[in-house]
Every structure is written in structure tokens, then in C-alpha cells.
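Dear H.,

Thanks for agreeing to be a second pair of eyes. The structure we're designing against is below in C-alpha cell form, covering all 907 positions.
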């Protein structure tokens, strides 16, 4: 009877925010537009399977011009054995449109399955155009379907994150609501409401499990009718029912119209629904209540995420519901129990250890009527003074510094620990009582052990200085109950603190990994690393020592200063000198009692009042070789905890690989930049009556060298060739392949006059010589300066713009083939345009159109707007205006290199 759920892409897409869904649709439409353009189709659509897996729902649609179309409202029904079913078999299917296809069956010319990790999520369907090749290339169809699958997978991931965020928020609201409520009826009402709202349901109810009476009693409801409430106020059950057994085993049960169990049918009717779920609320392994939640109207079942959320809410609510039920049953008859409940609520509302123990001390003091109460925490066989009330401030500080070894001397403590229950110490403390004799004038003291799961985690000691306090039996019982709550609070606070510290450590490591992954320059990496290390508690100063291949040292400090030293003997700072064993392969070093010295180079250490500090030197190791160390310095003379050393070690592991990568990159970038500068040609600014302007702008220093390039050269027939392209990838490899692409095009252009033939030969050569992961987008134009005719071919590059002075408008020169290096044997078309006097021809790379601000791209429309006012000016003025527009739009921060060629025919 375990619940089942639906898990599909359509379910996930419902959770996308409107803006995210819009971006998601735009991405799908962009892929379809490219598909229509490259394959010359009449249209293309993306369909995704619904939750049931029996129908296809359109997600994106474009026409023959690549423009978005209105999506059909109805889903496409299909049978798995039918025509659409074959399209979902996992292969690209091409076929002639069937005139006899049933009206409810989708009837495309071809389709390819959209798959994610082998799971078919839908299909991309196309309609052939008049110029579409007779046999559509299956590889191209599959490639586009794979791109769509990636977008769908990304949307699913985003949706899952939205679901998780919603669940975390709901659980937080549940925790806050339950912990702050004092009325048990109010708690039950909130549980009922929050469960329903958490999954978008309209109706819910909560029943308290009265096992002795063999019945469920309705205590709260949400959205249900009064007649239903009255009819199902009490529901009887039998112990042998399988539904009871399943709930008692902490498993949720789905309730439907065919429910055979009488109990299940009553629970279903209690929320006036055709589908519902019964959720057990367990406390200490015992069923205390059952929540019934109707199925949301937007679903046909309960997704696994919703079931998990309901079970999590139930887990949080069960203890509070049971406590509230017991509290109500006793009807607040005993004042001490009311106080105990208040303490329990206060402790549950705070995970801060100090706040919780303050509540414990004050509560025990109030219940017992004494003024002094101290709380010890026991760790590793010692009792540590943590908090005390009813004494002077000086005594509070001395109490916090206590670390007592538990022995027979501390008879009051040991007696309570051994007996495992509150102990009253009678008579004045003697020398055998150790600390009690030395510092407390004890006449009668109550010692309460704080026990969690059979282990004593602390002690509370209460007395009235100089007086023999009276402790009644009931008072001791209440103090013991407070002690039980205190032990749970201590354990929860410790677990919370450990979880918080672990979360902060993971956050620090994640942020550091992100930062080091983005900052490729070594100086920036070291600054980032010191900034993150300074965020750690009790860290006063930081230095990082990096050893170069020649034995020299580079030292970076927390103030951003970086100093180079010839060798280790040149070091002067005592902290650096003390840490050298870690640099020499002796592992992590903890050095204590390091005296403050005048030669210390850390300003924050020089300004502290402490005369001695401590150092943790953690080596940076890569491939079993020590490349440097991280020096973490505390102004206190102390030991470093295991958790601190573990965290610094993790930071060192993350940093080591990044630093080595940064060193390699620095060397590679210098080579690549020199190489790339050599690739930029010297371009004449005038050919006959044609002005030519070129611009190249590199991105910021931390960005890696890109593959943008351009070329202008005269051909053997006197015509002028213009080339602009972009090689995929970054760094030295990209620069090398840029040179390959540039000179291949030059060589073939001197043998072939037709741009399409040049690109065909260059494509075949690149497919043979460069890696499969490398490709080149390239635009080649050949200008006949006498006639003004431009013959061009475009291999997947940004569409150039041609301004017509006669028509006073821009037009784009279309793409005529795919990028170079993808597939040998590709064909490219040569198109032509004419430059008349006053016309302007603009070529650029994607660094121009993909300049972004607030998530928006400049796009080709931004290039048009920048150039249009200046088409009457020189080519140089137009190029400068475009580059200035790109920089301003991007906020002065280029994310990618940009290359520009502007040609203007004078007239």
C-alpha cells in the first residue's frame, strides 16, 4: 500500500517561475529557429510528454521564418503502437505526411526523440519545406534534439531547486509556527493548514490517535464542510486492519475511490475528496495522530516531493502534538507542569546553547525558589562551567573558566551522575567536595543530571548561598523534567552548531572554489584565498607562501601585499620562519607561544595586546609535491581544534590545484597573447574608393585569451578578401587553431575565387587537423572593387550588416552553412550583395552582440542603433562608435574579446 507518484518533465515545468519559463521557451524557440534555417523547413515544434506519459504537450513552435508561433492548446494524444509511438522509439523518424492519419494523431513529416539520460521526454517534430532536402539528415535532427534535451534537463533541475526551496520555506514556517504556539488546539489547526497549503491542496484534517479507545478523534480541519466535520468527528478502527499497520509503520497511505478499507473510506470522506493521502505523525516510534490531505486539483496523484514534504511536516509536528495532547489531558492542573511546558517551548524555539541554558537555570531557580543555579557541561570526562545565575560578575567569569575532572572529590556531582537522578546534598560542603568547598558555601544543594539517551551531558546545581533550601518531592520531579528538556536542548544545540559550522565550512569551500575557478591570475587567486581565510573565527592574520620552480618564494598577506624572496633564508617575519617545516615536507604544523616580535610584517598582530600567538601552517600539496603553505595566525596562544585543521586542510586542497593552474595559466597566457598579437594583420585604411577600419579589443585581464580574429588581403585577381571568425575555446590552443584557420583560408583563397569553395576546403582540412571539440565560425567576403559586388559565404558566424544608402536601412547577410570543423564534406553557398556609393558593410564577432547588461544581450539590433547615426561618417568613426556602445552597454567590463571590420564605399 506504499504510495506511488508521477515524476515527469511536465510536472517539473509547472514549478518554473514566469520569468524562468519565458527564458526556457525562448531558448527552445532559438534552437528551433536555427533548425528551420539550417534544414530549410516549413516549421518545427517541441512536444513534451505529460505526467501520465500518454499525451504530448507543445512547448515551443516556430514557422518557416524562425518566428515563434502560437502553441496548440490541446495535447496530442497517441498510442504507443501507432505512428507517434514510433517517433518515440528512440530514433529519428522521417516519413511522408499521412493524409489518412486519424484527426487526434499528430501528423508531422519527421520527428526526433528528446532524451535525457536515455529517458524519452518528448520529441521535436518538423514540417518539410519546398527546399528541404528529400532525406533530412538524421544526425542534424538528433543533434538539435540533444540540444533541446539539455534545455529541458536544465529546466527540470531549476524546477527541482524551486521545489526544494518551497519545501525548505514550508518546513521553516511549520517550525516557527509550532514552536511559537502555546495552545494545543492552535497547533493542530496550524498543522492541518500548513500541510494543505504546503502542497497546494484545498482540504485537510488532523485526527488524534486514541489507541485505548480504538478510535480517531478529529481535532483540526482546513477547508472542509461543517457537515463533514460532524459526520466524521470520531472514526473507529480495528487493530488488524492493514491500513492501521501501514500507518503505524510510519508509511503514508494513498486513499482513492476504490478504497476497500472502511477506515480508509471514512478518512477519504472526511476531506470530501476523491483522492487523498493519510500521513502518520510518529513520536518515539509510536503513532500519535493522522493527517488526511486531499489531492491538489492541479494533480492526478501525489508526487514524491509532496509526500516527502508532508512526512517532514509530520515529523516536526508529531512531538508537539503529542506533548500538547498530554498537556491538555492534564488540563493544566499542576503549576509546575505548566512551567515545564513553557520551558520546553522556550527551548524548542531557540537553538542557541547559551540562551537555552539561561532558560534552564532561570526555570530551575524559579521552581526551587533558590537564587543561585549553575550549569556544567560534560565533555571528555570533565565538567566545564558554562553558565551561572545569582552571583557577581567576577564569579560568573571564574565559573566559565572551570574545567573540573570528575572524581570522588566532587561527591555531589558524582553521586548525581552515578544514580542518574536528581540528588540533594545535605550539610555543609567538606574538603572532599573540591570546588564546592572552595567556592560555594553549600548547606543544601540540588544537583540535577542532564541525561540524553542514557548519557549524562551536563549538570545543574541549585542552592541558596548560606541557607539550607527546602526542596519538595514535586519540586525535584519538575526540576528533573526540566533537566530532561535541557539535555535534549543541549544535544539539539550541539547538533545545530555542528550542522551550522559544517554548512558554513561547505559554503566557504563552495565560494572559494567558485572564486578560484573564475580568478585565473595568480595574484587574484592569492587575494581571494586570504580574504576567505580571514573570515574564519579566531583568525587574526594570514600569509600564503608559494614556491616557484627556481626556488624563489612569493608571499601574500591579508592586506594584499605581495613580496618576492630569493629563497627561504631571506625570510624575516618570525611567523613565516616558524612555518618553514610545513614548506619542507614535514606536514601540517601547529606552533604555540610565538612571541610578538618587532620584525613582524602583520599590522594586526603588532596592534594586539597579546604577547604570544599561535600558528597553523598547512602545506599546499599537488601531486605529492609541496608547492607552498597557508599560514593561519591567531592572536591567542591556543591549540587549533580538529575541525579547524580539517577545514584549513580542505581549503588547502582546493587552493593547491587552483594555484598550480594559475601558475600554468600565467605562463600560457603570456605565450598566447604574444602569439595572438602576431595574428592581427596590418590593414590598409583605403583600397581605391573603399575605406576600411578594424578594431580588436581584448576582455579583462582575468579572462583567458580568446579565438577572435580577422584578416584583409588582396587576391591574385585584384579583388579584396575580408575574413572574420571565432575559434571555440580559450588560451594557447585557441590561438594555435586561430592561426591554422586564418592561414588555411588565405591559402585556399589564392587558389579558389569562390568563397563557398574556400570554406568547403577549409572545413575539410580543419576536420582532419584539429580536435573534434574545436570548431570555427567564419565569414568570408570577396569584394570586386570596380563593380562593388560582394561575394560571400558564412559558416555559422554572426550575420554581417550591410547599410544601403539608397534605401536608408540595414539588412543582414544570411548564414550559408554550418561552422567549420564539425563535419567533413559539408556544402556552403555563395551569395552576393552590391555595395553602392555611401553603403557601409559591418562584420563583427559574438563578443559584440553578446555584450550583456542585467541579463540582456546587446544583439544585432544594438549594433544597428550604434552605427545608423554615423553611416555618413568615416568607417573609423563607425567602428569606434560600435566599440564604445559595446563597452558602455557592458558597464565597461567586456566578458569576451571583440573584433570588428567596417568597410565603407565613398560616394
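And this is the sequence the design step returned. I haven't edited it by hand at all.
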Amino acid at each position: 500500500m506504499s504510495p506511488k507518484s508521477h515524476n515527469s518533465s511536465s510536472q517539473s515545468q509547472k514549478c518554473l517561475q514566469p520569468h524562468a519559463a519565458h527564458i526556457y521557451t525562448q531558448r527552445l524557440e532559438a534552437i528551433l529557429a536555427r533548425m528551420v534555417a539550417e534544414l530549410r523547413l516549413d516549421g518545427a515544434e517541441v512536444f513534451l510528454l505529460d505526467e501520465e506519459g500518454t499525451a504530448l504537450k507543445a512547448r515551443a513552435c516556430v514557422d518557416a521564418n524562425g518566428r515563434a508561433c502560437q502553441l496548440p492548446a490541446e495535447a496530442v494524444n497517441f498510442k504507443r503502437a501507432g505512428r507517434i509511438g514510433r517517433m518515440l522509439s528512440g530514433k529519428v523518424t522521417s516519413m511522408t505526411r499521412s493524409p489518412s492519419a486519424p484527426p487526434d494523431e499528430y501528423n508531422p513529416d519527421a520527428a526526433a526523440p528528446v532524451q535525457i539520460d536515455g529517458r524519452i521526454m518528448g520529441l521535436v517534430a518538423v514540417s518539410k519545406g519546398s527546399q528541404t532536402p528529400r532525406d533530412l539528415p538524421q544526425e542534424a535532427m538528433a543533434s538539435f534534439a540533444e540540444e533541446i534535451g539539455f534545455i529541458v534537463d536544465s529546466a527540470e533541475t531549476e524546477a527541482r531547486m524551486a521545489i526544494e526551496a518551497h519545501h525548505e520555506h514550508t518546513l521553516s514556517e511549520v517550525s516557527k509556527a509550532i514552536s511559537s504556539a502555546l495552545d494545543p488546539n492552535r497547533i493542530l489547526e496550524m498543522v492541518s493548514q500548513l500541510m494543505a497549503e504546503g502542497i497546494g491542496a484545498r482540504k485537510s484534517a488532523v485526527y488524534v490517535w486514541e489507541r485505548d479507545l480504538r478510535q480517531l478523534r478529529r481535532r483540526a480541519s482546513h477547508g472542509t464542510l461543517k457537515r463533514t466535520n460532524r459526520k466524521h468527528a470520531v472514526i473507529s478502527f480495528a487493530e488488524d486492519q492493514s491500513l492501521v499497520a501501514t500507518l503505524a509503520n510510519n508509511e503514508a497511505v494513498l486513499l482513492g475511490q476504490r478504497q476497500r478499507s472502511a477506515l480508509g473510506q471514512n478518512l477519504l470522506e472526511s476531506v470530501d475528496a476523491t483522492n487523498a493521502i493519510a500521513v502518520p505523525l510518529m513520536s518515539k516510534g509510536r503513532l500519535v495522530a493522522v493527517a488526511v490531505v486531499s489531492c491538489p486539483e492541479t494533480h492526478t496523484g501525489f508526487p514524491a516531493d509532496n509526500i516527502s514534504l508532508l512526512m517532514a511536516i509530520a515529523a516536526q509536528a508529531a512531538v508537539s502534538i503529542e506533548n500538547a495532547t498530554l498537556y491538555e489531558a492534564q488540563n493544566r492542573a499542576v503549576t509546575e507542569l505548566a512551567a515545564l511546558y513553557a520551558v520546553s517551548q522556550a527551548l524548542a524555539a531557540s537553538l542557541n546553547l547559551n540562551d537555552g541554558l539561561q532558560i534552564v537555570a532561570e526555570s530551575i531557580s524559579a521552581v526551587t525558589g533558590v537564587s543561585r543555579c549553575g550549569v556544567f557541561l560534560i565533555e571528555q570526562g570533565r565538567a566545564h562551567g558554562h553558565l551561572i545565575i545569582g552571583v557577581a560578575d567576577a564569579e560568573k567569569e571564574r565559573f566559565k573558566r572551570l574545567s573540573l575532572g570528575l572524581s570522588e572529590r566532587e561527591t555531589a556531582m558524582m553521586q548525581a551522575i552515578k544514580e542518574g537522578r536528581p540528588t540533594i546534598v545535605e550539610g555543609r560542603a567538606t574538603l572532599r567536595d573540591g570546588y564546592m568547598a572552595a567556592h560555594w558555601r553549600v548547606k543544601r544543594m540540588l544537583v540535577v543530571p542532564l541525561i540524553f539517551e542514557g548519557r549524562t551531558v551536563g549538570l545543574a546545581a541549585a542552592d541558596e548561598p548560606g541557607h539550607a533550601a527546602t526542596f519538595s518531592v514535586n519540586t525535584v520531579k519538575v526540576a528533573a523534567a526540566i533537566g530532561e528538556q535541557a539535555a535534549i536542548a543541549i544535544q539539539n544545540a550541539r547538533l545545530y552548531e555542528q550542522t551550522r559550522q559544517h554548512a558554513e565550512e561547505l559554503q566557504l569551500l563552495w565560494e572559494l572554489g567558485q572564486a578560484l575557478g573564475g580568478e585565473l591570475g595568480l595574484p587574484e587567486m592569492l587575494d581571494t584565498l586570504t580574504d576567505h581565510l580571514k573570515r574564519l573565527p579566531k583568525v587574526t592574520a594570514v600569509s600564503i607562501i608559494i614556491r616557484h620552480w627556481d626556488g624563489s618564494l612569493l608571499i601574500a598577506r591579508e592586506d594584499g601585499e605581495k613580496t618576492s624572496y630569493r629563497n627561504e633564508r631571506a625570510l624575516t617575519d618570525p611567523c613565516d620562519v616558524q612555518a618553514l617545516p610545513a614548506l619542507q615536507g614535514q606536514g601540517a604544523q601547529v606552533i604555540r607561544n610565538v612571541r610578538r616580535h618587532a620584525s613582524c610584517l602583520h599590522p594586526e598582530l603588532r596592534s594586539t595586546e597579546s604577547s604570544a600567538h599561535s600558528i597553523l601552517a598547512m602545506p599546499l600539496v599537488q601531486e605529492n609535491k609541496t608547492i607552498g603553505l597557508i599560514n593561519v595566525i591567531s592572536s591567542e596562544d591556543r591549540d587549533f581544534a580538529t575541525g579547524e585543521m580539517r577545514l584549513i586542510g580542505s581549503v588547502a586542497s582546493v587552493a593547491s590545484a587552483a594555484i598550480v593552474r594559475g601558475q600554468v595559466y600565467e605562463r600560457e597566457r603570456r605565450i598566447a597573447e604574444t602569439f595572438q598579437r602576431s595574428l592581427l594583420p596590418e590593414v590598409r585604411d583605403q583600397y581605391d574608393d573603399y575605406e576600411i577600419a578594424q578594431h580588436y579589443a581584448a576582455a579583462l585581464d582575468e579572462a583567458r585569451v580568446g579565438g577572435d580574429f580577422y584578416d584583409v588581403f588582396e587576391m591574385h585577381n585584384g579583388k579584396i578578401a575580408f575574413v572574420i571568425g571565432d575559434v571555440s575555446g580559450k588560451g594557447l590552443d585557441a590561438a594555435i587553431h586561430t592561426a591554422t584557420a586564418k592561414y588555411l583560408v588565405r591559402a585556399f583563397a589564392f587558389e579558389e575565387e569562390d568563397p563557398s569553395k574556400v570554406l568547403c576546403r577549409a572545413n575539410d582540412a580543419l576536420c582532419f587537423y584539429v580536435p573534434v571539440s574545436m570548431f570555427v565560425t567564419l565569414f568570408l567576403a570577396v569584394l570586386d572593387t570596380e563593380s562593388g559586388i560582394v561575394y560571400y559565404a558564412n559558416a555559422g558566424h554572426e550575420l554581417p550588416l550591410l547599410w544601403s544608402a539608397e534605401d536608408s536601412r540595414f539588412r543582414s547577410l544570411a548564414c550559408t552553412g554550418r561552422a567549420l570543423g564539425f563535419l567533413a564534406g559539408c556544402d556552403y553557398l555563395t551569395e552576393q550583395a552590391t555595395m553602392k556609393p555611401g553603403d557601409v558593410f559591418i562584420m563583427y564577432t559574438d563578443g559584440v552582440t553578446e555584450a550583456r547588461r542585467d541579463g540582456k544581450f546587446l544583439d544585432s539590433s544594438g549594433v544597428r542603433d550604434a552605427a545608423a547615426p554615423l553611416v555618413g561618417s568615416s568607417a573609423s568613426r563607425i567602428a569606434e562608435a560600435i566599440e564604445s556602445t559595446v563597452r558602455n552597454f557592458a558597464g565597461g567590463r567586456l566578458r569576451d574579446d571583440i573584433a570588428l571590420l567596417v568597410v565603407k564605399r565613398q560616394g
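Two observations from my side: The mean pLDDT is 79. Residues 473-518 form the longest helix (46 residues).

Warmly,
E.
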